[in-house]
C-alpha cells in the first residue's frame, strides 16, 4: 500500500514530515515499511500554503490494510493543527493491485501539482472517478499533495531526486529556542560539500538548515545520497533528538520551472526559465529590493527582482546594463519574476566619453572653452570633440545563483550543476 499525506502543519507548528517519520516507526506494527519515504515539494507560489508546501508518501507491505488506514487517520486527527485556517489535511491510500492503473494519472497529477495551480475539486474528482481510498478534513486541500506524493512513489525513477536527513526535537522542547553548536554546521559543510548543500551560507555566515519556527524539526541536511546526508548529520553538535528520518525528495531539482518562449505566456503563480535582453537598468527601491526589466524577441517586457533577502546577489544584478542577454529562472508573483538563478549569456560593450588624447605627448587635452573643442597646452594640438572609449565590465558571463539563505526548496543549487561556466557570487 502507498500512503500519501499532506497539509497537517501550520505557521505556528507541526510538520507533515514529522508525521511521516512517526509512521515509519509506528506502522512497523502492521507490516514492513518498504524503501525510503518521499518528501515532495509542490508549487512554491501557491498563496494558501502553510510553510514549505510539502507532502509525504510511504509504502508498506501489510496483511491488514484496514488497520493501517485507521492508524494513519487517527494520528492525523491527533497531530494536525486543525485550528489553523490554512490547515486542511488529506490522506490517500493506494492498494498494490491499483498501481499500474493509477500510475499514468497520478504521474501527470504530480507534474501539475509542482508546476501549475490545481483546485481542490480536481483532486476530489480524480479520487471519486478512480475509486481511490482517501480521508480529508475541513476543505480537504491536502488531498492535492497526498495524490501528488503517491504519483511520485508510483514512479520513483521518473524524476530527478535528492535526499534530506531530517532530525526532530524532543516534544518538550517544541516552541523553544534551538540549542545548537553553530560552528559544527560549518564543519559538516566543509567536510561534505558539494555532495551536501544549503547547510550554511558561508558568505553571510549563516546556518540555513535550522528552521526558526515552532515546528518539530531541529535541522535538515540536503545532499546527493542517504550516506552523505547521514555523514553530515553525524558531525552536528546540538540538543538531544527524538528521532530522525531520511527522505527522498524533489528538492534542489528545478522541477517547478517551465520553459517560457515569450513573456506573453507567463502567468502569476508559476515558475519559469525565460531568456531576454535587459531593457531597463537595475534600480534599488526602498527596502533594498533591486528591480530591472527584460524584453523578449516580440518586444514584450517584464519586471525582474532580486529582493532584499538575496543579500550579496543584488550587487551582481546592479552590474547589468540594457542590452545584456540573460536567461532567468524564477517564480512570478504580481507580474514580477523573483530571480532564483541568472545565466548571463552575453554582455554589451559599455562606452564612456572622455577628453581626446594628444597624438604627440599622449596626455588628455583640456577644454579650450565652450564650443571651442580641446587643446593640448604643451604641444598645441587640437581636437573638436570628446571621444568614446570602451570600458571594461566588472562582470563575466556564466551562471549565478542567490545565496543559500535565500534559496527556495525546489531551486537547483549550482553545486548540482555539471557545467564549467558556473559563478558562485561573490564566493561560496
UniProtKB/TrEMBL annotation:
<dbReference type="InterPro" id="IPR013696">
    <property type="entry name" value="TiaS_FLD"/>
</dbReference>
<feature type="domain" description="TiaS FLD">
    <location>
        <begin position="140"/>
        <end position="256"/>
    </location>
</feature>
<dbReference type="GO" id="GO:0002101">
    <property type="term" value="P:tRNA wobble cytosine modification"/>
</dbReference>
<keyword id="KW-0436">Ligase</keyword>
<dbReference type="Pfam" id="PF08489">
    <property type="entry name" value="TiaS_FLD"/>
</dbReference>
<keyword id="KW-0963">Cytoplasm</keyword>
<dbReference type="GO" id="GO:0005737">
    <property type="term" value="C:cytoplasm"/>
</dbReference>
<dbReference type="Pfam" id="PF22641">
    <property type="entry name" value="TiaS_TCKD"/>
</dbReference>
<keyword id="KW-0547">Nucleotide-binding</keyword>
<feature type="domain" description="TiaS C-terminal zinc ribbon">
    <location>
        <begin position="355"/>
        <end position="395"/>
    </location>
</feature>
<dbReference type="InterPro" id="IPR055394">
    <property type="entry name" value="Zn_ribbon_TiaS"/>
</dbReference>
<dbReference type="GO" id="GO:0005524">
    <property type="term" value="F:ATP binding"/>
</dbReference>
<dbReference type="GO" id="GO:0016879">
    <property type="term" value="F:ligase activity, forming carbon-nitrogen bonds"/>
</dbReference>
<feature type="domain" description="TiaS-like TCKD">
    <location>
        <begin position="2"/>
        <end position="61"/>
    </location>
</feature>
<dbReference type="Pfam" id="PF23783">
    <property type="entry name" value="Zn_ribbon_TiaS"/>
</dbReference>
<protein>
    <recommendedName>
        <fullName>tRNA(Ile2) 2-agmatinylcytidine synthetase TiaS</fullName>
        <ecNumber>6.3.4.22</ecNumber>
    </recommendedName>
</protein>
<keyword id="KW-0819">tRNA processing</keyword>
<comment type="similarity">
    <text>Belongs to the TiaS family.</text>
</comment>
<dbReference type="InterPro" id="IPR024913">
    <property type="entry name" value="tRNA_Ile2__agm2C_synt"/>
</dbReference>
<comment type="function">
    <text>ATP-dependent agmatine transferase that catalyzes the formation of 2-agmatinylcytidine (agm2C) at the wobble position (C34) of tRNA(Ile2), converting the codon specificity from AUG to AUA.</text>
</comment>
<keyword id="KW-0067">ATP-binding</keyword>
<dbReference type="InterPro" id="IPR053870">
    <property type="entry name" value="TiaS-like_TCKD"/>
</dbReference>
Amino acid at each position: 500500500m502507498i500512503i500519501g499525506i499532506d497539509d497537517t502543519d501550520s505557521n505556528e507548528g507541526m510538520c507533515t514530515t514529522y508525521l511521516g517519520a512517526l509512521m515509519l516507526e509506528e506502522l512497523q506494527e502492521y507490516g514492513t515499511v518498504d524503501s525510503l519515504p518521499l518528501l515532495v515539494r509542490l508549487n512554491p507560489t501557491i498563496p494558501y500554503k502553510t510553510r514549505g508546501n510539502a507532502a509525504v508518501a510511504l509504502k508498506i507491505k501489510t496483511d491488514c490494510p484496514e488497520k493501517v488506514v485507521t492508524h494513519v487517520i487517527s494520528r492525523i486527527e491527533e497531530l494536525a493543527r486543525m485550528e489553523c485556517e490554512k490547515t486542511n489535511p488529506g490522506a490517500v491510500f493506494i492498494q498494490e493491485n491499483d498501481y499500474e492503473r493509477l500510475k499514468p494519472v497520478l504521474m501527470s497529477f504530480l507534474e501539475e501539482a509542482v508546476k501549475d495551480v490545481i483546485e481542490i475539486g480536481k483532486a476530489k474528482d480524480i479520487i471519486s472517478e478512480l475509486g481511490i481510498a482517501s480521508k480529508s478534513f475541513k476543505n480537504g486541500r491536502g488531498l492535492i499533495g497526498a495524490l501528488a506524493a503517491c504519483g511520485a512513489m508510483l514512479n520513483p525513477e521518473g524524476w530527478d531526486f535528492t535526499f534530506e536527513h531530517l532530525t526532530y526535537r524532543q516534544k518538550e522542547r517544541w516552541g523553544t529556542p534551538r540549542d545548537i553548536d553553530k560552528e559544527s554546521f560549518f564543519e559538516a559543510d566543509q567536510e561534505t560539500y558539494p555532495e551536501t548543500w544549503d547547510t550554511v551560507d558561508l558568505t553571510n555566515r549563516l546556518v540555513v538548515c535550522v528552521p526558526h519556527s515552532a515546528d518539530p524539526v531541529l535541522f535538515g541536511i540536503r545532499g546527493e545520497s542517504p550516506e552523505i546526508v547521514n555523514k553530515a548529520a553525524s558531525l552536528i553538535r546540538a540538543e538531544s533528538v527524538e528521532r530522525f528520518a531520511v527522505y527522498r525528495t524533489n528538492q534542489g531539482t528545478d522541477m517547478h520551472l517551465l520553459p517560457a518562449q515569450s513573456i506573453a505566456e507567463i502567468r502569476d503563480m508559476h515558475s519559469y526559465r525565460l531568456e531576454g535582453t535587459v531593457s531597463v537598468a537595475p534600480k534599488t527601491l526602498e527596502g533594498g529590493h533591486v528591480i530591472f526589466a527584460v524584453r523578449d524577441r516580440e518586444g514584450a517586457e517584464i519586471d525582474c527582482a532580486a529582493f532584499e533577502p538575496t543579500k550579496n546577489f543584488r550587487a551582481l544584478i546592479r552590474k547589468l546594463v540594457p542590452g545584456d542577454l540573460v536567461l532567468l529562472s524564477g517564480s512570478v508573483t504580481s507580474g514580477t519574476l523573483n530571480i532564483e538563478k541568472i545565466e548571463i549569456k552575453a554582455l554589451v560593450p559599455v562606452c564612456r566619453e572622455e577628453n581626446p588624447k594628444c597624438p604627440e605627448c599622449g596626455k588628455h587635452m583640456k577644454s579650450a572653452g565652450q564650443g571651442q573643442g580641446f587643446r593640448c597646452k604643451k604641444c598645441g594640438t587640437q581636437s573638436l570633440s570628446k571621444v568614446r572609449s570602451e570600458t571594461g565590465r566588472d562582470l563575466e558571463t556564466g551562471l549565478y545563483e542567490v545565496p543559500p539563505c535565500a534559496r527556495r526548496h525546489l531551486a537547483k543549487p549550482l553545486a548540482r550543476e555539471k557545467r564549467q561556466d558556473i559563478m558562485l557570487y561573490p564566493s561560496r
